[in-house]
Design goal:
Pantoate--beta-alanine Ligase, Chain: A,domain 2, about 150 residues, alpha+beta, 4 helices, three-stranded antiparallel sheet
Length: about 150
């Protein structure tokens, strides 16, 4: 047999021996498992934190809008006072938008609308990829002013 045929067999044997040696060597296995599991674990943890922050933000928006709308419905204050009360109930110092709609002609309803972009309502901003803002709207019937 020519020498060129034997060399690949020797290389194959060396690779085979090296492969068996690497399969028996367990050092670094835990590090590899950690490197695979860590990103998934962090994604789950920060995802849970984002959902909790989103819920807390929405709950404060709803509470603030309800209080501001109730102030208007009872004629206990004007639109500026309703907006101030709503803002005082909001969670954090995010860029909230508060719109107050007073009762107009032909309508007895008063409303407060509060919104914030999703990326400002969470810690990581991953949920901010949704694009639409987080919005709540509370509408109440205004009490007749002659009953007060």
């Amino acid at each position: 047999m020519p020498a060129s045929v034997r060399r690949p067999r020797a290389v194959v044997l060396r690779v085979g021996v090296l492969g068996r040696r690497l399969r028996r060597d367990r050092r670094g296995g835990a590090l590899l498992e950690f490197a695979i599991v860590l990103p998934v674990f962090l994604l789950l943890i920060f995802g849970a934190i984002d959902v909790i922050m989103l819920h807390a933000t929405y709950a404060s928006m709803l509470s603030g809008a309800r209080d501001g709308t109730r102030l208007l419905a009872l004629h206990a204050g004007d639109a500026a006072e309703a907006e101030a009360m709503t803002r005082s109930r909001l969670f954090g110092a995010g860029p909230y938008t508060v719109d107050v709609e007073e009762a107009g002609l032909g309508s007895d309803d008063v409303a407060v609308v509060v919104s914030i972009p999703f990326q400002h309502a969470t810690v990581t901003g991953i949920l901010g990829l949704v694009g639409e803002p987080l919005t709540t709207r509370v509408v109440m019937r205004a009490e007749p002013s002659d009953r007060l």
